Amino acid sequence: MIALYNCYGDINSRYTYDSWGNLISVTDANGNAITDPTHIANVNPIRYRGYYYDTETGLYYLQSRYYNPQWGRFINADDMSVLDASAEDILATNLFAYCGNNPVNHSDPSGYFKIRKSYIATAIDLAIYAIPALMTINKMFKLLKSVRPAYRLLNGSKFVPMIANITTKVLSRVGLKLRITASILSFISTSALIIADMSIGKLVAWGLGRIFGTKKYTVRKYGRWGPKIKVEYVMF
């Protein structure tokens, strides 16, 4: 949240923060400081990165924890389970740290874990731009009525270049970046069976897994009870 607009689309007020979320200034459209506590800019609770701001304490509420921008730390610890999930990340051992001490390149939407912004952008690109490929392959499988014969036809045959060509044309219409086009086309030829059976939600999870990496754990099926099963976690 860096500005408020009125109903006519004109700027009403602006917010300026430092990298950690400390409020530097609240100004009107002309750049004059807004000091009136009843002004909408000061009453508005949605501030830095969309967090709820408590004017009395100067803390941000991230749905699970309160964050102090002056300290660059949460005022209470994260869940102990993150120590197991992030054993390779030494910064994760500090359960009070915000964005891994790097708020410029990371974001923390809920107080649970940090996310590298570029990774999220790439994951969204992957999910959105792979949809035409998903639709193309699914249509072919429906026409061929059977997945296994379809895979034999797709694997190392003229169908792969054909699908790639169709998909490239579709992707170019939405301004797909060349580097992502290459990865998608490679993905089509090597992972046709995987994508053909995916919902959009699964596709997003699959893309995140490819980017962040995954790790399998043995857990109880129903939380604290039930049979032991293998589950796969995306390592944010």
List the helices and strands and how they pair.
Layout: E1 3-5, E2 11-17, E3 23-28, H1 40-43, E4 52-54, E5 59-61, E6 66-68, E7 73-74, H2 82-85, E8 106-107, E9 115-116, H3 117-144, H4 147-154, H5 159-173, H6 178-190, H7 192-196, H8 200-212, E10 214-220, E11 228-234
Antiparallel strand pairs: 1-2, 2-3, 4-5, 5-6, 6-7, 8-9, 10-11
Helix pairs in contact: 3-5, 3-6, 3-8, 5-6
Distance between the termini: 25 Å
Summarize model confidence as the mean pLDDT.
69
DSSP strand tally: 11
What's the number of domains? 2
Q: Report the oligomer.
A: single chain
Shape assignment:
elongated
Total of helices:
8
Largest sheet: 4 strands, antiparallel
The SSE string, one letter per element, is EEEHEEEEHEEHHHHHHEE
InterPro entries: Rhs_assc_core, RHS_repeat, T6SS_VgrG/RHS, YD
Pfam families: RHS_repeat (PF05593)
Description:
The protein is α+β, with helices and mostly antiparallel strands. The chain has 2 domains: 3-102, no CATH class; 118-212, no CATH class. The protein is 38% helix and 19% strand. The chain contains 8 helices and 11 strands. The strands form 4 sheets. Strands 4-5-6-7 form a 4-stranded antiparallel β-sheet, with no helix packed on it. The chain has a 3-stranded antiparallel β-sheet with strand order 1-2-3, with no helix packed on it. Strand 5 and strand 6 form a beta hairpin. Helix 3 (117-144) packs across helix 6. The longest helix has 28 residues, at 117-144. The two termini are 25 Å apart. The model is unreliable at 188-200 (pLDDT under 50). It holds the Pfam family RHS_repeat. InterPro entries: Rhs_assc_core (IPR022385), RHS_repeat (IPR031325), T6SS_VgrG/RHS (IPR050708), YD (IPR006530).
